[in-house]
Amino acid sequence: VTVYVGVDVGGSKVLAAVVSPSGEVVRSVMARTPGRLVQASAVEDVLTDAVRAVSGGETIEAVGVAAAGFVDPAGERVVFAPHLPWRGEDLRARLAERWDTPVVLANDANCAAVAEAAYGAADPDGLGVVVTMGTGIGGAILLDGRVLRGHNGMAGEFGHMQLVPDGEPCECGGRGCWEQYSSGTALIRFARARLGHEPSVLAEACDGDPDQLTGAMVTAAAADGDLVARKAFASVGEWLGVGLANLVAALDPHFIVVGGGVSAAGNRLLDPARAELGRCVVGAGHREVPPVVAAALGPAAGAVGAAELARRSGQAH
Amino acid sequence: VTVYVGVDVGGSKVLAAVVSPSGEVVRSVMARTPGRLVQASAVEDVLTDAVRAVSGGETIEAVGVAAAGFVDPAGERVVFAPHLPWRGEDLRARLAERWDTPVVLANDANCAAVAEAAYGAADPDGLGVVVTMGTGIGGAILLDGRVLRGHNGMAGEFGHMQLVPDGEPCECGGRGCWEQYSSGTALIRFARARLGHEPSVLAEACDGDPDQLTGAMVTAAAADGDLVARKAFASVGEWLGVGLANLVAALDPHFIVVGGGVSAAGNRLLDPARAELGRCVVGAGHREVPPVVAAALGPAAGAVGAAELARRSGQAH
Predict the structure, then answer these.
(1) Per the confidence metrics, is the pTM higher than 0.90?
(2) ipTM score here?
(3) In sequence order, which residues have a C-beta less than 8 Å from that of residue B56 and are 6 or more positions away?
C-alpha cells in the first residue's frame, strides 16, 4: 500500500496526516513546532519524525508540506515566515532528499483553500476568501476554484493588513496587524489581560502563571462557560469581522470560509464575526453580504490540501 | 460626425468629455456636483447640461457614465453612493431616454481602470490594483486587463476599508475608513487642522474662513512651497501608503496605479506613499514591492474609460 502524506507546519503545531484519495484523514500525528528562534534543521527534525510516525511503515508516494510562511512562486523555498526559522533555504529539495520521496511545498493557507474547494466548504465557482486562523492569520483568494497567487506568490497574507495605527507589535516587524487582534495569539492575550481582574477558571488552569496560558485552555474554559474565556473569543470574533469587512470592501467575494485551529470554536468565534461584518461592511443593506462559514475540514485542511497537491503533482508526472 | 461621450460623476465634480477612438480627450466640460442631499434629478440635470455642452452640436453615438458609487452587476442602477443622491433608481434607462442615445453605466474607478489598461499606465497582463483618489477613494482590481467585479459588482471599494478603529466618521456610515485619511476630503481636513496654528498662505486663500478651503487651494499652495499644504500632502501620501500596504498584503499585485483628481499632485503625493508602503509592507526585503505609478490619463481617466465602454458596447450590438 502506498500513501500520500500532508504536513501542516504552523507557528505552534505540526500536523502530519495520511490522506485518502477522497480527502479523508486516515491517520494523523501532532507535534509542537520548536518556534522561530531555533535552527531551521530543528523544525525539519520535527517534520521528519511526524512524517515517519504517521506513515506507520507504509510506503510514502509523496509528501505535501504546507508552511505558515511566504513560499516562492516555484515552490522551492520558504522565503520568509514570521513564526518559523526558515529564511530561503532549499527546503523542498532538502526534505525530498532526506525523506527520499517527492515533496511539494506550498503556503499553508493556500493548501487549506485547495482542500476546502476540493472537499470542503468553499464553493468551486466564483470569487471567495479563505481565512485561516491559527497562531496568526493566513488566507487565500479563490477564483473559480483556483488559488490567486499574486506576483510573488504571496497573495492572501491577510493577517498582516494593518488595522490599528501604532498598534500591537507583530513578529513581521509591523504594528497593529490584523492577526495581533484575531488569532490564537490574540485570544491568549485578551484572556491574559483579564486574569487577576476578573474571576476565571483560567487562573487555576495556568497554575497562576498567565504566561503559561494556551489557546487550548481558553477554548476549553469558554466551552465550560467561563466568562473571561468567552469575552476573549468575543473580542477575537469581533476583530475577525472588522478584517472580513475590509476584505469584502476590497474583493466583494461570493463566500468566506474560516478555518485553522481557532475556528474549531465554531460559532463562538463566527457569530460575533458575522455581527461585526454586518455592522462594518460598506453598503450594508444595498448588497448581499457573503456568508461566513466554518471550514468543513477543520484544523486538518492544510494537511489535506498539501497531500492533495502532492497527489496532483504525482499524477502530472 | 458622430462622437462618443464619457461623463465622470464624482462627489465634487462632473467631467464630461468627447473621447477619440484612440482614447484622447477631444473636448471636455467640468461642472460642480450638487452633492448628496439634493434630489437625484438635480444631479441628472447637471449631467444633461454637461453632455449637451461638450457634444458641441455633434451627434452623440453613445454616452458612458462613470459613477462614484456601487453600480449593480447589470449596469442599470447606482445602488448606493456615499457622495451622491442616487439610491437604486433606473438611472441608465432614465438617462438613455432623456438623452435619446444609448447609455452605459459603470463604477467610476472601474472605468478609470479600463482606460488605464487600454491607453494608460496599467499593465494589460497580471494582477494589478488601480486606486482612484478624489473626494473619496475608489478602486479596481485588474486581472489580465479585465476588471474583477466581485459578487455584487462592488469589488475595489478600497476607500471603505477601516484603517482606524473608532476613527473619523465616514459618509458610508462607518468610522475610520481609509478615504477619511487619504483623499481630497482628508487633504482639506489635514490642512484645516493646522490653520491658525501655523502660518500659511491658505489662511488668506480661504479669506480667513477654513470652511471655504478647497483641495485646489491646498494643491496650489503646496506647489508654491507652503508648509501647511505640503504637510497635508505628506499626511495624505503616508496614509495612501498604509492602505496600499494592506492591498499588497492581501493581493500581492504586480503593479499599482494611482489616479483621480488628487493624483494630479504627482510625486508630492506618491513619494510619501511609496516610502510608507516600503516601510509597512509585510515581507519587505523578501519580495518585490510593486511600483506605484501615476495614472497616465490623469483626472480624465474615468470619463475616457466610460466612453471606451460606451464605444465597446456599441460595437457589440
Answers:
(1) no
(2) 0.87
(3) B18, B27
